[in-house]
């Protein structure tokens, strides 16, 4: 059996980790191992910005759609003026 060591973590973060761990894994050790493996396997740093979030992408997409709609309305208005 592996031996254990103590790691000092702020109480608020420890509680958050425990809640996450209970939700997805059987033990805190397993949770930590999977999290570390995830970062190593994907060759990313937890400090990296992974790009735009879904909300930002959705917001940008909506703005572009609204711009296209405005252009289409302008074209329709211009067409109706000529007929």
From TrEMBL:
Going by the entry's taxonomy, the superkingdom of the source organism is recorded as Bacteria
The protein's matches in NCBIfam families, at most eight in alphabetical order, are given as:
mob_BfmA_Nterm (NF041200)
Protein's name according to its UniProt entry: Neuroendocrine-specific golgi protein P55 (NESP55)
Top-level taxonomy: Bacteria, Pseudomonadati, Bacteroidota, Flavobacteriia, Flavobacteriales
């Amino acid at each position: 059996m592996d031996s254990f060591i103590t790691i000092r973590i702020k109480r608020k973060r420890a509680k958050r980790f425990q809640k996450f761990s209970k939700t997805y894994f059987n033990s805190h050790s397993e949770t930590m191992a999977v999290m570390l493996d995830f970062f190593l396997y994907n060759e990313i740093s937890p400090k990296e910005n992974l790009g735009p979030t879904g909300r930002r992408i959705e917001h940008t997409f909506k703005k572009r759609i609204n711009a296209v709609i405005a252009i289409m309305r302008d074209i329709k208005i211009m067409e109706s003026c000529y007929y």
